[in-house]
Amino acid sequence: MFASQFRQGRNPLLGIFFALLFVGCASLAPTTDQPVKSANDDYQYRLLTLPNEMQVLLISAPDTPKAAASLDVQVGSGDNPPGRAGLAHFLEHMLFLGTDKYPDAAEYERYITEHGGTRNAYTSFENTNYFFDINAPFLPEALDRFAQFFIAPRFDAAYVDREKNAVEAEYQMGLKSDPRRGLDVIQEVMNPQHPYSQFNVGSLETLADRPDSLVRDELIKFYETYYSANMMRLVVLGPESLDELESLVVPLFSAVPNRDYQAQEIAAPLFAPGDLPLLVQVQPQATLRQLDLSFPIPDYRSDYREKPVSYLSNLVGHEGDGSLLSQLKAEGLAESLSAGTGLTWPGGWLFSVSISLTEKGQQQYSRVVELFFSYMKMLREEGAQQWL
After folding, report:
1. Amino acid 30: pLDDT
2. Bridge partners, residue 293, by sequence
3. 290-382 belongs to which homologous superfamily?
4. Rounded to an integer, what distance in angstroms lies between the CA atom of residue 324 and that of residue 260?
């Protein structure tokens, strides 16, 4: 599964875990720092740093009928080696197909589904995430199978062609998706020195064997470089006590190798100097009238407590009286509006405002842009409001 627009069957519970993973672990240095929770939250939490530097969040939910786990690797399509578009995505597909301890390629999926669970994974620009849920009594055995993917996967050569074709199928499916097509167009006008500008889903062409380079060999090299315990974050939820969960997790996931890889920020700007402002027009396949306004901004993750981007997103996306949307609607220009971070990469973000236009708004999109910048000017002049 590739990128956010292709995530299917996401478990809402796992979505919460994934949020907790990054909110909770963002300040995780000593294991004595523990999450602050609501007085109304009956779950118990514990943060751990394993000897191999993997960071772990345990969640004890005594009454839950389902257990779940999610492991995130801070590596994604932005780390594809030159000339091997889609290698990170291809690895995500190949990882599930057997390990030294459980060599049967279908064993993991069979165990999860036979015990009432689901499993999936996705690749984004910065991350690759693997997750499952299962009937709670079967968590220990499921965790054992899950951990082996990060200890000793087989990358069985017998499945290379099959998984290449699976990646190709996702690529072909994306060609019919307006959001994906829109991203492809934006990538064409990005700074070619920035990795986001590169094709990253993968295809039969980019994953083909070459006389001097077998894709499976490159896959193993990629795994042995980037899949390092210090780049991983794990969340496990189950009905067991925190001590019991810890006794399950520590011996299993401490065996994941720490290759001491350190992520690097991307020095190149997303758009080349002098290329902005830029107007890009895209002809959609579906009936769609939409105006997207996007702005490269610094990476604000270190300011997660203050949430400056969330603050701005809420103000721009507000729908009540006096809002930008209320004025656009009053003039018959727009039907809806959303704002927030779109693309993210190490060192920067893209703040995007998406406006669903009426026919009149499509014809008079310059007026929509004028109102947007007038609203932003007002926000700048009034400054940050403490009550918000």
Report:
1. 38
2. 353
3. Metalloenzyme, LuxS/M16 peptidase-like (3.30.830.10)
4. 48
Determine how many CB atoms are found less than 10 A away from the CB of residue 7.
15
User: Which is it for strands 128-135 and 66-73: parallel, antiparallel or unpaired?
Assistant: antiparallel
Phi, psi of 63 (to 5 degrees): -100, 5
What does residue 296 show for φ and ψ, rounded to 5 degrees? -65, 130
Catalytic residue among 92, 126, 168, 218: 92
Contact 316, 378 (CB under 8 A): no
The domain ranges of the chain are 4-253, 290-382
Identify residue 342 by its one-letter amino acid code: G
Block residue for tokens 């103000």? 315
**Annotated catalytic residue 109:** no
Q: Could you tell me which CATH class the domain 4-253 is placed in? A: alpha beta
Nearest CA to 54 out of 82, 83, 31, 88 is that of 31
**For 292-321, how does the pLDDT look when each residue is reduced to its tens digit (9 = 90+)?**
999 999 988 888 888 899 999 999 999 999
Residue ranges for the chain with pLDDT beneath 50: 1-30
Q: What is the pLDDT of residue 32?
A: 55
Contact predicate 125/190, CB 8 Å: no
Convert the pLDDT of each residue in 29-58 to its tens digit.
Answer: 435 578 888 889 999 999 999 999 999 999
